[in-house]
Amino acid sequence: MPDWTYHPLRQAAAAVLGRRRSQRTALGLLAGIGSRPAGARLIARGFGHRHPPRHLAGDVVGVPVTVRLGLSVLPSVARQAVHAMPPLGAGVVEVGPVSAADVETVRKAAAGRTIPLVVRAADPEVEAALKPHVDGFTRDDDPHLVHVSDPSVTAAAAALEEPGTVVLARPGVLVESGPGWFARVTEAATPTAPAPRLRDVGLDPRRWPAWWWALLVGLGMTGAGLGAAAITLGPVLLWYDRDYLGMTLHDLHAANHHLVHFLQHDRITMAGTMVAIGALYTGLAVGGIRRGWPWAREVYLLSGAIGFPTLFYFLATGFVEPLHTATALVLFPMFVAGIRPTPHAPRWRPAPEGPEPERRRALTGQLLLIVTGAGLFVGGAVISVVGLTGVFVPTDLTFLGTSAQTLEAVNPRLVPFIAHDRAGFGGALMSAAVAILLLSAWGWRRGEAWVFWTLAAAATAGFLPAVVVHGVIHYTDFTHLVPVYIGIALTSTGLLLARPYLCAKTPTPPGD
Known about the structure:
alpha/beta; TIM Barrel; two-stranded antiparallel sheet
């Protein structure tokens, strides 16, 4: 969950604005986004909020709440809190202490709320004035209300184990721990159970859990990528390539002595991206979907929803590659089976809280990985557009020592053939980028070592072949490769910073 929005930015804000004003600014920013439907969905998904388990529901002074977890704020920030808290996973907002001078402020904050609002009033007259506008009133001596200023997730989750207890955080908790604190507390308080075992499910595919199918897709993508690399390093062209072009490998060499190397560089880079997608899907299946993380299924779904439709790029390029099509047709039914909601209870085990410096370094690493994912998505979109339109960038033509018109004169099908590879790589890169970005945004939890190794494997599979093949064929233009170098630097730094946090030792879930 991307708490990096509060670090290191929160430190700079606190230094410039002061602690209380920085809290107000942060709440105001979240409130501005959360007050709009699209913004509320963005915050809810971005900070990992999901529907809390039923046992966390209850009431606050007789007011029903979906989760006994909320925020206690001063009247001056009540309006921002009312708009910001629902998508973050809070169940109630308490405002207090409220005096007669604050009545109008609280009335305005209560207007149009989508979350229960309770007030800690200074005297009976204030209660009478606000009674028609708020949901209830709390007392300082209420034993069921626990106000916390310490961001300890473990302590908050332990307090929620008592059925009637309501935990109310001070704004400083969110500043120190990030707005994902509510989701982390909810996860820590969620009961877990073992996932189905092979002997419980049997060999009937109709009874297989969704994560098995997602795993098969991941392994299938890895195998397809390795197969594509083997073909590229071997014959380069298969029979259907030669039939479409009406040219042999020797003919391509004769047309342009750099052309075969150019095709190899496109296809090796594409193969590496396919293996990276396979690594991401395998990790999401085994580490995420198998253990009941709802966001892991959504990462897998959104990545595939971008990747599979790129098969239809052939409508623009005019070249249908049989192996590409067959792979997609085989894997797509498995992909659909892999996105079924898992019926079993979650089986994760939240790690004990570690040193605060470790977490803060990990948040910086998280930010770098999210930036990398966003950059890769933009790069994939640009490559797709180029592949479907102009096909070549200036450095490509410099390497080839020719022009697109000259290649078209040699063979009218040559440029569409190259366009298929180029656009397909762009589509695969967007699919991988979405998985990297969302896995980094939603899966950043202490002790989730599989997140670290999944991202490391994907980065190795994606970046290493790209660098090696460009060096081997001497296509080393710095401008062309600088995005790759930046991606390697950001990913390496981010993973190094986050490794102690993500790979911290945790209790082993039962059945593992």
